[in-house]
Amino acid sequence: MIKLNILPRERKKTLKDKRFFEMASKKAFFLLSIIFFYAILVTAENLYLKYEIDLSDNLIANFSKKDDGIDKTIQDVNKKINYIDDTHKNMVNWFVFFGDIKDMKPDGIKINKISLSKQGNKIAIAGFAATRDELVAFSDKLKSSARFSEIDLPFTALLSQKNITFEIKANIKNYESKKSQQN
């Protein structure tokens, strides 16, 4: 069977662009769904912690009226409050963390995957760069950032001038942004 390629170039380009935008829309919807789910989880946790604090405040108020076992109750409430405080201190604001990475990224860089290892404080950023200059600029911004150290951009990623697939590895020095450190 002979296949004829009779579609005009404009129509081919239109079909190719349409497929690209459909794929990009699906990926954006998936990413927004994940962000929405995370926001719901954080909101639920925040409400739960507020409930626990209110409950602790009520317990303190009720037990301050009673003389029996007041010291033990206050100690229990203080332990709960300290637990809640420790939980909040150890939380990482991932929206700010990924937002800072997005702000460092030049327009010609498309990030496909970010892998994190909090135990080893390591990050791997994989993606596509339109040009070598944009990839070098992104690597330089990561190096100058207070968040990352030991940026590893393989030399092989710099061999091509355009259309570069890359994976940058780094150590995470700091999970907090400059804005939250100032507060």
What can you see in these coordinates?
The structure is a single chain. Helix content is 58%, strand content 19%. The chain has 5 helices and 4 strands; from the N terminus they run H-H-H-E-E-H-E-E-H. It starts with 8 loop residues before the first helix and ends with a helix. The protein has helices at residues 9-65, 70-89, 94-104, 132-144, 178-182, and strands at 109-117, 122-131, 148-152, 162-172. Residues 179-183 have low confidence and may be disordered. It has 2 domains: 7-91; 94-182, General secretion pathway protein M, EpsM (Gyrase A, domain 2, 2-Layer Sandwich), CATH 3.30.1360. The radius of gyration is 25 Å and the shape is elongated. It has a 4-stranded antiparallel beta sheet, with helices on one face. With 183 residues, the protein is an alpha+beta fold.
